[in-house]
Amino acid sequence: MQKTSLPTFGHYRSAGFSIADKGYIGTGSANNTWSNDFWQYDTVFDSWTQKADFGGIKRQSAIGFAVGNYGYIALGDSGNTPAIYFNDIWEYDPANNTWTQKTNFPGTARTRAVAFSIGNKGYVATGYTNGPTYFRDLWEYDPTLNSWTQKANMPTGTNREGAAAFAVNGMGYVGTGRDGSGFKQDFYEYNPIANVWTQKANILGGVRNGAVGFNVGCKGYVATGFNGGLNPTNVLYEYDPSTNTWTQRANYGCCNDSQGLGITIGNVGYLIGGQSAGNQNWAYYPILTYTPAVSFSVNDTFICETQCINFTSTTANNPNSWAWSFPGGTPSSSSAQNPSNICYSSSGLYSVTLIASNCAGSDTLILNNYINVQVCTSIDELDESQSIVYPNPSEGIFNLEMSGFGNLKMESVDVYNLMGECVYHLQISQSPNLQINLSSQAKGIYFIKVIADDKVYSQKVVISPKG
To answer: What is the set of domains in the chain, with CATH numbers?
Structure first.
């Protein structure tokens, strides 16, 4: 959806960030001249306000990130020939509308790097300087200490500039861009706790350079950019870290573009400026992913020893992983969405736990004493003088002689096949004789289960071939 355009000449190769419900953009090219102007976008009023000019020298292709209530713009180049490459970093305080220079970036001065923030730290990676030299190093900035720490380099051979980056669920992601041999489509995940890079699935659609990256919720997004030459594109891809998959989403609404700015404000992504878009401002509203709301069912909670049962997850909000726990059961755990043939060999009350997850988080449901396993008595044992299930075998019609239960209070009658599926159910409040019609079932072995006075009575029956 198009929003109010930036009220100045077109901006591309700009830097920016978001703080609370405001977005910020500055530097870059404006009407073919390099700029240090700086603007605030208010999402509530869909309006722009010019703020104090960026504190450093005018530049293009700088990087921006935010930590807490402060924003940062750093690096870049002067845009002229020969270019001057910068290593300074400046902090913006929106409350006071002021810029303060911080400790210089200790790596090689560079342009077209990427940045992202995780927790209370900012991270700067890759980039380019004259030579040509392409970088794969990673640096962490601590605003509290105003200090830099070098972290693990990206894997060997991943030097690049013009990449796209975003952070999701405490992980950083960097990919695409180019080096001296051409454009790239590979993508990498950075774990700041382990200080380790891991290669992930390549972005769809082939190589690209000069794309924008941003995150909304638990997904990352890469949009626009050059797709293998000097041909810009309007394609947008969504990355789901929980499944390591890319999905194409709605194309950028403006045009085929490159070298714009992507930021996130709330649950909305914004693409601002760009080589073709000029001063346009577009909002992207993704399909949001919510934390699962766990629920599940089972085909029976009142079973006999050695009987097996089947569970079904009815969890809402599209989980993509399931962790079941069946203490006392065999198997005792499962990662299947709908685990089947969970067997219990000993009588007792057993709990069941399900943890369902997606990229937005996880939810847990524990049902204590959920499965009641009984030592079952054969129906025939109720009255030794007669078999009260007859005829057996039959072609599908079975008579259940209720008088054999004496004064027991009848509750229900169920019939199960060998898969543990209930094929017949009847709630009863008194004890008349009962005819069970299983003629629609396939031939084979079935189990009649009667619950009376909170005890289980069972009998194997056989449906014989008809005729």
So the answer is: 2-284 (2.120.10.80), 296-374 (2.60.40.10), 378-463 (2.60.40.3080)
